[in-house]
Amino acid sequence: MYTTAKSPETHPALLEKCLELKPQIQQWAEQLGFQSVGITHTNLEQAEQHLSRWLQKDFHGNMDYMAKHGHKRSRPAELEPGTLRVISVAIPYLPEAMAKMDTQLQQPLQAYVSRYALGRDYHKLLRKRLVQLAKKIQQQSGEFAEKFNYRAFTDSAPVLEKPLAEQAGLGWIGKHSNLINAQQGSWFFLGELYTNLPLPVDAPAQNHCGRCQRCLEVCPTQAIVAPYQVDARLCISYLTIELHGAIPRQLRALIGNRIYGCDDCQLVCPWNRFAHLTAEKDFLPRQGLDNISLLELFAWDEASFLRRTEGSAIRRIGYQRWLRNISVALGNALRADELKHCDHALIREALSQRLIESDDMLREHILWALE
């Protein structure tokens, strides 16, 4: 049976103070660069049921952490005792016009990196801003400041951030499982503040996907197996980031030139015509990764990889998986009709050179690419 934390007897003065804080939180969040902020309760019963069904179907693949923490993910008060409300925030990360991304996806020898990973890792930036927001709240809590507790999250603990954001009114979860905002699209990061303050909550967002099926139709691997259901085992983001072993052979040709993540479902979403470009310099492309060839990346040695991915989310996959992904992309480039004969020779030479120093997992992907 699903239960939520019960509020203790609440002093009328605290409720009044929370009413006063509500518009101030909105103002402070905007000053800190968040494009939207909302507040919700901790009842995630429907989201918990959805997660349970998803796990039962093994759609999480080898992401064991999705099932590891019991109900802490869907019951905030079990993760952080005393939590009554969740402040949900969003910050845009879109670095460029979407037309440029489409163009890059059509060039077999160009590497495509999911746009969220082009700049600095967002975790530290968001958490720092959330802590600043929490301190603002504490400073203005008056006599209740000492009793104010909080914990900041940025995809760093078992938190159902998208259902919480939906309940807080930041947007609705689309058929591709990403959060969509009617005024801002879906190119944004989410963060949360768990707090024991009984703040007034916002109305949840309404779903506006309607009959649209574009994200289901465009997915290269058909990972969106039904509206609102993504089989991670088929998803290119999972295959290129989360999967530690070999990429299934039947999926490799479908990955194209995507070497870290995939944005296709967002690129075709009609609501992203309203998306805002980011104002955060830390989210802008680094190391030329928004316009770089596969062969150039494949030539990096491990020291270069570590140096040039410092502070980036990309580093988490490690050098061998980085080469694995590029090997698949180079194999797909060899199969592209528009590739010139001279490019064929360069790719085969680069792949063959890597065979000398590859481990078994990488060797398998290089040999596949050379077939």
TrEMBL record:
<protein>
    <recommendedName>
        <fullName>Epoxyqueuosine reductase</fullName>
        <ecNumber>1.17.99.6</ecNumber>
    </recommendedName>
</protein>
<feature type="binding site">
    <location>
        <position position="237"/>
    </location>
    <ligand>
        <name>cob(II)alamin</name>
    </ligand>
</feature>
<dbReference type="InterPro" id="IPR004453">
    <property type="entry name" value="QueG"/>
</dbReference>
<dbReference type="GO" id="GO:0046872">
    <property type="term" value="F:metal ion binding"/>
</dbReference>
<keyword id="KW-0819">tRNA processing</keyword>
<feature type="binding site">
    <location>
        <position position="219"/>
    </location>
    <ligand>
        <name>[4Fe-4S] cluster 2</name>
    </ligand>
</feature>
<keyword id="KW-0004">4Fe-4S</keyword>
<comment type="similarity">
    <text>Belongs to the QueG family.</text>
</comment>
<feature type="binding site">
    <location>
        <position position="155"/>
    </location>
    <ligand>
        <name>cob(II)alamin</name>
    </ligand>
</feature>
<keyword id="KW-0479">Metal-binding</keyword>
<feature type="binding site">
    <location>
        <position position="209"/>
    </location>
    <ligand>
        <name>[4Fe-4S] cluster 1</name>
    </ligand>
</feature>
<dbReference type="GO" id="GO:0005737">
    <property type="term" value="C:cytoplasm"/>
</dbReference>
<comment type="subunit">
    <text>Monomer.</text>
</comment>
<keyword id="KW-0560">Oxidoreductase</keyword>
<feature type="binding site">
    <location>
        <position position="190"/>
    </location>
    <ligand>
        <name>cob(II)alamin</name>
    </ligand>
</feature>
<keyword id="KW-0671">Queuosine biosynthesis</keyword>
<dbReference type="InterPro" id="IPR017896">
    <property type="entry name" value="4Fe4S_Fe-S-bd"/>
</dbReference>
<comment type="function">
    <text>Catalyzes the conversion of epoxyqueuosine (oQ) to queuosine (Q), which is a hypermodified base found in the wobble positions of tRNA(Asp), tRNA(Asn), tRNA(His) and tRNA(Tyr).</text>
</comment>
<dbReference type="InterPro" id="IPR017900">
    <property type="entry name" value="4Fe4S_Fe_S_CS"/>
</dbReference>
<comment type="pathway">
    <text>tRNA modification; tRNA-queuosine biosynthesis.</text>
</comment>
<feature type="domain" description="4Fe-4S ferredoxin-type">
    <location>
        <begin position="197"/>
        <end position="229"/>
    </location>
</feature>
<dbReference type="GO" id="GO:0008616">
    <property type="term" value="P:tRNA queuosine(34) biosynthetic process"/>
</dbReference>
<dbReference type="Pfam" id="PF08331">
    <property type="entry name" value="QueG_DUF1730"/>
</dbReference>
<feature type="binding site">
    <location>
        <position position="265"/>
    </location>
    <ligand>
        <name>[4Fe-4S] cluster 2</name>
    </ligand>
</feature>
<feature type="binding site">
    <location>
        <position position="212"/>
    </location>
    <ligand>
        <name>[4Fe-4S] cluster 1</name>
    </ligand>
</feature>
<feature type="binding site">
    <location>
        <position position="73"/>
    </location>
    <ligand>
        <name>cob(II)alamin</name>
    </ligand>
</feature>
<dbReference type="GO" id="GO:0052693">
    <property type="term" value="F:epoxyqueuosine reductase activity"/>
</dbReference>
<keyword id="KW-0963">Cytoplasm</keyword>
<dbReference type="Pfam" id="PF13484">
    <property type="entry name" value="Fer4_16"/>
</dbReference>
<keyword id="KW-0411">Iron-sulfur</keyword>
<feature type="binding site">
    <location>
        <position position="269"/>
    </location>
    <ligand>
        <name>[4Fe-4S] cluster 1</name>
    </ligand>
</feature>
<feature type="binding site">
    <location>
        <position position="262"/>
    </location>
    <ligand>
        <name>[4Fe-4S] cluster 2</name>
    </ligand>
</feature>
<feature type="binding site">
    <location>
        <begin position="262"/>
        <end position="263"/>
    </location>
    <ligand>
        <name>cob(II)alamin</name>
    </ligand>
</feature>
<dbReference type="InterPro" id="IPR013542">
    <property type="entry name" value="QueG_DUF1730"/>
</dbReference>
<feature type="binding site">
    <location>
        <position position="179"/>
    </location>
    <ligand>
        <name>cob(II)alamin</name>
    </ligand>
</feature>
<dbReference type="GO" id="GO:0051539">
    <property type="term" value="F:4 iron, 4 sulfur cluster binding"/>
</dbReference>
<dbReference type="GO" id="GO:0031419">
    <property type="term" value="F:cobalamin binding"/>
</dbReference>
<feature type="binding site">
    <location>
        <position position="235"/>
    </location>
    <ligand>
        <name>[4Fe-4S] cluster 2</name>
    </ligand>
</feature>
<feature type="binding site">
    <location>
        <position position="215"/>
    </location>
    <ligand>
        <name>[4Fe-4S] cluster 1</name>
    </ligand>
</feature>
<keyword id="KW-0408">Iron</keyword>
<feature type="active site" description="Proton donor">
    <location>
        <position position="155"/>
    </location>
</feature>
<keyword id="KW-0170">Cobalt</keyword>
